[in-house]
Amino acid sequence: MTRIFPRALPRRAAHAPQPRRERTWRRLPPLLRLLILTQLAFNVGFFAVLPFLAEHLGTAIGMAGWMVGLVLGLRTFSQQGLFVAGGWLVDRYGVRPVVLTGCGLRIAGFAWLGYAEATGAVIGAVLLIGFAAALFSPAVESEAARQAVVWEEEGHGPRTRVLALFSAAGQAGAFVGPLLGGLLLVVDFRTACLAGAGVFVLVLAGHARLMPQHIPGRTRTHGRGGLRVLLRNRRFLALCCAYGAYLLAYNQLYLALPAEVERVTGSQASLSWLFALSSLLVVGAQLPVTGWAGDRLGLRRSMAAGLLLVASGFAVVAAARPAEWTGPAGLLPAAGYVVLLTLGQMLVVPAARAWVPDLAEDGRLGLYTGALSSVSGLIVLAGSSATGALLDLGLPPAVPWLALAAVPLLAVVLLPSAPGAAQTAARQAAP
Q1: pLDDT in tens, 216-266
Q2: DSSP readout, 104-132?
Q3: What is the pLDDT of residue 23?
Q4: What is the pLDDT of residues 287-346, one digit of tens each?
Q5: Most buried residue, 108, 228, 248, 398, by CB count within 10 Å?
Q6: Do 274 and 261 form a contact (C-beta atoms < 8 A)?
């Protein structure tokens, strides 16, 4: 199979000079800086609005609970499910037009949502918001991964270091966005929507001015058959399944963790503090963790180590459940779970994104980046109902958490094999 880049470069010898991590941002080319700042802005604009959507639909508009759930589900489907289509469009038309179109649609969607009152108008607005992300996210993510590989090949350091900056920027946006939205809600929901639209106006203007019309080394693919080849790519599909299993485990932050917090404290008020803990850990520790892993581990071992940390987080709660702790002491296992899950996330996410270019066909990195999100999103969709039922079966206290710990352990088994020694030697000998 033709590849867009050589496979991951071998880890440098211990005596080779290592670039100073604290200078990574200053040494990045302008395009990579633009992509990383774009990810920050995307999440600020998104999380200034979406966390407050359910309450707005239920209280201000008066939708029934099932309709609120349907609207939220449609938004997720129009975004995650269509990532693969957005990735195909990136390969066909290039990064710049797809990002600009996605930003324009997101601006229109947020403005529409701010004024929407009828059910049909709300559904139309959220579908537009989701589809916009299905356009610009694969474009930005695939180009960030491509540029990270170029960065690595030029000898600046592991590609995961660049993608760690990308992840940390997104997490910082996810932390700042709700704070901004909460302040704007003092006025009303419409103001928060218009502010979110304003963020994307700035992103649109920045890309219109700074994004090159043609990015060196990026070729547009006009042929058909990419999806058929992708579906025969067993190593890539194995990565998708492993990443989907990780996302299913990570999704328990929104399913199993709230149930545990309510059990031990009688309410979910402490959830916000645990979510803030997770965000601050990523913002503060993502770069050191990824730098350490990049110097010592390959992509497969980084993902495996991260998945084992996620599994150990579930095991911590499982070990404490029989004691039936409540109150502040009861939150300690939940906090340990959040810390271990977040540390695992810091290893898994940059490594998975960095692995995709090694498995993608020539000229189809956008398609493969989108497919990673779409396939793993379908796995989460299929598995969420099963994990929800698991928590309601009345099993012994530790059993559901042990079963959840098995999910990331299964993901370790599903990981594709790393390149063999012969392949590494061939890469080193290649001109």
Answers
A1: 666 666 656 567 788 888 899 999 999 989 988 887 877 778 778 878 887
A2: HHHHHHHHHHHH--SHHHHHHHHHHHHHH
A3: 66
A4: 788 778 777 788 899 899 999 999 999 999 999 888 777 777 878 898 999 999 999 998
A5: 248
A6: yes
The candidate with the shortest Cα–Cα distance to 257, out of 247, 270, 244, 245, is: 270
Mean pLDDT score, 102-130: 91
Name the strand (E) or helix (H) holding 156.
Answer: none
Alpha helices in 154-252, H assignment, sequence order: 159-184, 189-210, 226-231, 234-250
For residues 114-145, one letter each, b for 16 or more C-beta atoms within 10 angstroms of the residue's C-beta and e for the rest, the string is: bebeeeeebbebbbbbbbbbbbbbbbbbbbbb
Q: Mean pLDDT over residues 336-362, rounded? A: 88
361: helix, strand or coil: strand
Rounded to an integer, what distance in angstroms lies between the CA atom of residue 148 and that of residue 346? 17
Distances (CA, A) of 26 to 20, 214, 266: 11, 24, 48
* Average model confidence (pLDDT) across the chain: 80
Q: How confident is the model at residue 199 (pLDDT cuts 50, 70, 90)?
A: very high
Burial track 14-48 (b if 16+ CB lie within 10 A, e otherwise)? eeeeeeebeebeeebeebbebbbebbbbbbbbbbb
Q: Give residue 301's Cα distance to chain centre.
A: 19
**Which element (helix H / strand E) includes 418?**
none
In angstroms, how far is the first alpha carbon of the chain from the final one?
19
Residue type, 302: S
Distance between CA atoms of 14 and 205, rounded to whole angstroms?
Answer: 44
Alpha-carbon distance 338 to 320, whole Å? 14
Q: Output DSSP code: residue 10.
A: P
CA 96, CA 381: separation in Å to the nearest integer? 31
DSSP conformational letter for 239: H
- Paired strand residues for 361: 3
Six-digit token string for 59: 């209280």
